Amino acid sequence: MNQLHAYWRMAYIEAPRAPKTKRPFSDLPARGDDRAALIVHRAPLSYLMLNRYPYNPGHLMAIPYREVTDLEDLTDAESADLFREIIFAKKLLRRAINPDACNIGFNLGAAAGGSIAHLHCHIVPRWNGDTNFMPVLSETRVLPQALEAMWEKLHAEAKRLTAKNRQKAGKRLTKD
């Protein structure tokens, strides 16, 4: 029998769990603890969080604060804000972990793979050769970095990017 040693997982196994909720994407931002909620960035009408069950390290989700189930339910302002958050996520991943590519998409409805009835967009970083035999043979994904460590990295870079964007916006306003 082969053994896979993942000693770092014990901290995850023993960590306290967030209470189960039927509305996680509404409840998590209201908790007030972005680190525990894995929220790496907040915009006025939407936010970015790490996926607790990622396909790859750095798998983010862009989520509107208002609970809607379809793109058509968003207001124009929410649509624009959510799309800016998706673009911000791609830029954040490029600067923080430098993937070779990204998959970006929505699962609209249960038949399409949607598991939570709250609209959210997946931003999944990809690297050349990132698929291997583990998911195929043993239905197991190997993630090389703990969620908390990835949160630290992305949250720090999100702060830098936000400050840089504000600085650019200020320069544009003074030119006008």
Task: Give a short synopsis of this structure.
By secondary structure, the chain is an alpha+beta fold.
Annotation keywords:
176 residues; HIT family, subunit A; globular
Write the layout of secondary structure elements.
Elements: H1 9-14, H2 24-30, H3 34-37, E1 39-42, E2 46-50, E3 60-64, H4 76-97, E4 101-106, E5 121-126, H5 133-138, H6 147-175
If you had to describe this structure to a student in words, what would you say it looks like?
- The structure is a single chain.
- The chain is an alpha+beta fold and 176 residues long.
- It has a single domain, classed as HIT family, subunit A.
- It contains 6 helices and 5 strands.
- Strands 1-2-3-5-4 form a 5-stranded antiparallel β-sheet, with helices on both faces.
- Helix 4 crosses helix 6.
- It is globular and about 55 Å long.
- The model has no long low-confidence stretch (mean pLDDT 84).
Beta percentage is: 5-15%
CATH topology: HIT family, subunit A
Give the helices and strands as they follow along the chain: HHHEEEHEEHH
- The assigned CATH architecture is 2-Layer Sandwich
Approximate shape: globular
Placed side by side, the strands forming the largest sheet appear as 1-2-3-5-4
Unreliable stretches: none
CATH superfamily: HIT-like
* Domain unit count: 1
Rg measurement, Å: 17 Å
In helices, the fraction of residues equals 40-55%
Query: Biggest sheet, open or closed, and with what strands and sense?
Result: 5 strands, antiparallel
| Overall pLDDT confidence | 84
**CATH class category:** Alpha Beta
Ends distance: 69 Å
